[in-house]
Structure formats: structure tokens, C-alpha cells
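cron nightly-structures :: item 1 of 1
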Amino acid sequence: MDAKSLAPSHILTLMKQASIILLMVFYAVLQCFSQSVISGVVKNVEGAAVDFVSVIASSSNAPKTILASAFTDENGKFQMSVKSESDSLILKASSVEIAPTEITVPNRTGNYEIIVENRAVELKEVVVKSKKVYSHGDTINYNVGSFLSQTDQSIADVLRKMPGITVSDAGQVSYQGKPIKNFYIEGLDLMKGHYGIATNNIDPNNIATVQVLENHQDIKALKGLRPEEQASINLRLKEGVKGVFNLIATLGGGYGDEGLWNNSAIATYFRRNSQFLATYKGNNTGEDLSQELYSFDNDYSRTSNISTISMPSAPGIDKRFYYFNRSHNATFNNVYRVGKSGEFGINAAYLNDRDTRQSHSATTNYLPDGGVNTVDEIMNGTARMQKAYGDLTYMNNGDESYLKEQLKFDWSTTDADSRIVAGGDNVSQIGKTDTYRLLNKFHMTHRNTSDRGFEISSLVNLEKRPHSLSVSPNLFPDIIPSDMLYQHVDFRNISTENSAGLLSVFKVGNFTLHPSAIVNYHHNSLESRLDATNNDLTLDYLDAGIGAEVMFNTRKIHASLYLPMKYRLFRLNNRLDGDITDKNRFRVEPSFNFTYKFNSSHNLKASAMLNYMTPSIETLYSGHILTSYRQLSAYDVAGLYEGMNQFYSLGYDFKNILSMNASSG
């Protein structure tokens, strides 16, 4: 059928249909052209950006009708699309912390600035009942108020009541049997390893929530690349505590055999961008203040005492019942946010302690002929110790780059004297130990968008420990012909431990490869003088090589195999006789870790490791050293040796939030 054969009525119908289609297309085009993209920024009168502000767009003809809305980001910026036939729009900005503000803008795409005024809003009293324990992802939250009692003096007292958490007397926190890695307060690492000061001194009434961060990777650039088995703790403060200087001082006194006193002062100031904690404590009531100054960040000492004074042994009772002391300590801890992701921390402490002890013991030996030999021993001793440390730490923990530089100084001195009456002998001892240590730690990680990057870490340790022991009378006249013995020992360590690696050379499916290189060097020296019996040794240890770590990661499975190939050299130099012995080896020390996460409550873990151990200089001296008033030691050094260690473990973790919540009642 052609157009000529159409009836006029059919032609009219087709024309109407075409007109309707054209009108619909024209209306759609108008709708597209009437859509405006409104963006801008919200600032306060001081010019600072305001985040999490609600911005609502309304037509000037219908101000109560909401056409679009958006929230400002951390930089105060917002953006939204608005469809309206009105010539102008009303933008309304509001939040709890600002006064409601509105401006009128043209109904066209543009960028606008909204200036607001800060305000404080008084809320009506509301009673909120929180769960005792609840989880959110890998974070376990404990409501402190549900565990708090009137007798709790510090947050450590409350932590001990929380299921899954244990706290030692020194303040070290463990979760499910493993020590935590980091201790945060509102996300900041104020204590830098010395967090026993915080757990034993922070008022629990100031804490709202204790968060256990399971599998917490504290380096943001390594998230998703390297799992972390140790948990971390974060204290969330109550809102009324932030920005308020808090000082708690106590004075205690009494009288027993002598005047007794126990005094303390604790000052805290917590803000969003800075934190401060300072303490002073002093007592002679048996409270051990040295425990609070322990460091839990694995910065172990590389020297030790070889010659020590013998003090009265500790009985099997709580220390406060036999600890007759005069102790003072003071600590200073401060941390500041630097920029968006940086921190600068200062930590310092000083301890002065005097420990007086007395003991009376009787040792009975039964002889082969049936006779009995009983030795009575009475010992009196006094030890005076001073200790100080200082840390300077800078850290920048960004999403792609991590940098940490830490300089640490430790110093301590101990003077002790002891008198022993045993079997008719009257022995007096005087001992002294000085320790000086300077430690520098550097760690840098960089990661790009394709999960490639590098990681570098370096540690330098300088340590010196001179110590001496005087004993009168000489109990070894057949070996050392002298009326009294004076032993001096000087132990030193210079060491550096360095590693560098690539985060990911290539990735195939769930497999990644991470190559690395290490160079470790330790120089130890031991000098001793005891009359004509001397030692002058050095032990050098070099460990250098390359390695590769193969990792397999899924949502439930993590497995890693690390294969380092090392050249190892250790050399002993006896400088008194010029005798030098050394050993060098090529070694492979593999390690394997496997974790299977059934769900959020069940985990299966397995690990295996092989390594080789080398001797320490404390077991290589051949000249006599007076290690105690009744022990003279020397080693028959046949040469350096090497031992092999094998380690295997299999573990299963189970956690039930519901039972944890029930057990806390």
C-alpha cells in the first residue's frame, strides 16, 4: 500500500502520532538541559574547611521541597546534580557543630562557597544502654562502663576483667595469649612501647571503649599485602575528656617500724592532634616502680652482666611483702600530629630506687656415711639503682608511603653491697654496673597503585656495659693468691641490622613474589681484669644474603614461604695471645607460615622454621672471671661452634563474641 491509497483519516492519525513523539523528544531535551551540577565548599568564618556538613538544594519557588542533597568530605567539598525549572536555587548547610546557613544561587552549573558559623548545641539528656562486648569486622569493642567498679584505680584493673585480655604486673597486655603489638590512645601511639605507664596510670573513668584491633596492620602501605598476627589495643576516650587538662594527685602516709609514704601525681591532656601524659610516683611501701618503665617493643639489650653481686634471694610471695624500698620515678610522654598522617613523639623517664633485703636460710646435706651437714647463711644487702631513657620518634603513615625514624637513649647505674655470714665466714661484696646505650631505628615503605614498591629497614645499636665486683675475703686462694678479689668487666656491642626488599615483583592469580636482601653485622668485645687473670676478646659476626618470599592470599587462606640464602662469617679474636679463629658458611634458613580462617571465630595456624645459632662472647672467655663471690668461671675454648634449631607449631583459635558478652556479666 502506498501513500496515495491512504485515507485522509489515516494520514491525520499518523501526523498526530509523529507530533506526540516530537513533543516527547523535545521535553526530554529540555529536561537534560535543565539539569545543573552544583558543587562548592563549606568553610567557617576562620577559613577552615568543615567536613560532614549536610548541603540541601531547594527551588526558590518551593523552599521546603528537597531537590538534591550531599555531605561535605574531609576537605569541606560537595557536589550534586539538580533538576529544576526555577531560575534560582536555595542551598542550605547544616550540622550539629554549625549554625544553619543558606544562600541563593542561579540554577546553572557552578561552584559556590558557603560560609558558616560554629556553634555549640546543648542536647537533652539521653540514656543509652550499650552492649558489653560487640564486634565490627576485625575490631572487638569492650564497653568500659560494663566492667568498671569503684575499686578500679587504673585502666589495667578494668582490662584484667575483660574476656580474652590479660595484663601482667608490669602492665603488658596480651590478647588470646599473645602480647599486643601496639597500644593506641584515640589512634595515636603516645607511649612508643613503654605503655605500662599508661595502663597503670590512666583513670578508667576517662575511657569509653577498649578496642581490640585483630590482625591489625599498623603500616597502611602494607594493608592487604602482609597480614599481621598480633592484635593491637586502642582506647577510645569519653567526649568530655578531650581537650581537658586533668591532674590527679594522691598523698599517703603512715607509720610501721618507720615512717611510710606513698605519693603520686598524674597529668593528662588529650586532644585530637596532640596528647600528653606525665607522672610522678614515690613510695617506700613495697610498690615496684621500675616495672612501669619496661619496654615491650622487642628492643632487647645486646650485652649482659657476667659478674654480679649476690643479693638475698626473693621468697615465693608477692613482691610487695618483701620489697623494702625507697623509690621515685617521673615520666614525660608527648605526641603531636604533623600534617595529615604524621606524628612526632617525645618520651622520657627517670627512676631512683633503693632496695634493702635480709634473708636467713639453712641448707641441709645428707652425707654418704649417714651424717648431716647443715649450713646456716645470713645475708644483708642493699642495691641503689638509677635509670633514665629518652626517645625521639617521627612517623609518617600514609596510604602509599610509610616512614619511621626513632632515636633512643638508655642509661642506668646500679651500686650494691652485701654481707654474708655462713659457716664461720664473713664475706662482704661490693658491685657496680653502668650501662650506656644509643639505638637508632629507621623504616621506610613505599607502595604504588599496582601494589609494587619497596621496603627498607635499618637498626644501629651502640652499647657499653662496664661492671665490677669486689669480694673480701678471697675464697679462691689456691687459684688467685690475694687477700681480696676485684673483678672488672667491660662488655661492648656495635651492631647494625639492615634489610631491603620489593613488595611485589610479579603477581599471578593469588601468588606474589617478594625478593629481599639483608646485611647484618655485630661486633662484640669483652675485656676483664682479675689480678693476673685477664681476658681481651672480640667476636665479629657477619650475615649477608638474598632471599625470596612466596605468598598465597585468599579471603580465607594465607600462606608464605621465605627462603633466604646467606653467607655467614663469625670470627673470634683472642687479643692476649693473638689467636684468631673463624668459620664461614653458606646457609639456607627457610620458614613457612600458614593460616586458614574458617570464619570470624575460627582460625587454624601452622608454622615451621629452620635456623642456625652461633655462640655468644659470654661463653668463649678462657681466663677466669669471678661471676659471683663463690663462683670462678672459665671456658675451655676448643673453637667456634654452630648449632641448628628446628621449630614447628600448630594452633587453633576459637572466639565466640556471644559467650564473651555473657561471661562479662
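cron nightly-structures :: done
The chain is about 5% helix and 55% strand.
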